[in-house]
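Let's practice the habit of predicting before peeking. Look at the sequence and jot down your guess about where helices and strands might fall. Then scroll down.
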Amino acid sequence: MTAFADLGLTSCTLEALRDVGYEKPSPIQEQAIPPMLEGKDVIGQAQTGSGKTAAFALPIIEYVDPTEPEVQALVLTPTRELCIQVTQAVRAYAQRKGADVVAVFGGAPIRTQQAQLKAGGHIVVGTVGRVLDLISRRSLVLHSCRFVVLDEADEMLDLGFLEDVEKILNMTPNSRQTALFSATMPPPIRKLADNYLYDPVLVKVRSATLTVDSVEQFQLEVRTADKADKLVEVLAAEKPDQAIVFARTKIRTDQLYKKMRDRGFNCKALHGDMSQGSRDGVMLGFKGGRVPILVATDVAARGLDISTVTHVVNFDVPVSPDVYVHRIGRTGRVGRAGRAITFVEPRQKGELEAIERHVGVPISQWEPGAHVTPAKVTERPRRHAKPQLTRNGSEKHTKLIITGGRAAGIEVADLVGAVTRAAGVDGEAVRDVKVLERFAFVSVPAGDASRIAAAVDGEDVRGTTIRVELARA
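Done guessing? Here is the structure:
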């Protein structure tokens, strides 16, 4: 088993790692640290949570000279939140070395950051816009910068920062060592690497995937007004031991639960507006087998791993193909067979086709007693998952930017639910939801954009208070 000591790190850095409780390197650290210590440029492709901050920070700290009062390393981040997180980590690693780490980002007084840079700053971690601003004010001088790191480069691309990133790179010495880290490698990021990295070492760490290969998948076309009756028919024919019925919104979940209860079904609802005590009670009943049918939103059912679930019914088509795979993965656990049935309204055929393209197989028509051979489906890491929401109307839409993303556990369905709940709009009006690491985009009808932003701003989503504003053009 590889240890940090095997990677070529000095005793000072190894002591700092012991201080923060690190015992052994992660795959990205094991592969990226040695070439960086050798002075090579590195491209690191890995998901968040892989330990990439230490992968680039530790080699930098090894070579920073605390006696030189100049900026020797620059780490560029796409967002303020990531800037703060990276700074905290780098400071912990650099404490024993005595290197000074300064964070510079928008939304904070620039004069304070200017003063910090004047007082020291061997390693600067900053957002693209604020770094450019400080360079233009001659408060940040990069002529002695030996290391440059581009962290979450694909998010910089999504925010339209690549041109500014190139400006910054052109202000650093040609002899610098450069590292680029990104979860995905779209063509503009590859081009950036080709132009600014010299003979880089590619380090690629794949995320774990979940294979769903024991689930029979069916579709059932049904009109909106007939869906509740059709659900009763399906449950009567399927006779599930335990089933999760997924609805798109909390309101629809409550409505469906009440209809099912009134028709004599032993069922419970599970959604984010319930108190924690109520949710715990429902989960205990479901896990214990006392509740055979659970009507739930995606948010509430996130992470459910109950081996006795025999059926999943998508009462509402999922907001994205990735969510579909996540839902059907709640059944067919531990080698048991499972069945997934998706209700499709006539206007949602395009969304079903997107799901079929995603899973790579046609989804069979449901009828009582029908069977199909389960198809092998892989649940991919949810990166830039784009929902296939029904387009209704030709009204213009405006983009909103929301603080909070995958790092806070927020998913597409959470944001659609937050907008529909707080702003009182139908879920079909929310388009082009993109959840990134620490922020997200949604598009809403332009005429109501300001009202929706104000209504959703300050909402609690998965324990995170989100901030919402109109995105710049």
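How did you do? Residues 207-211, 378-393 have pLDDT under 50 and may be disordered.
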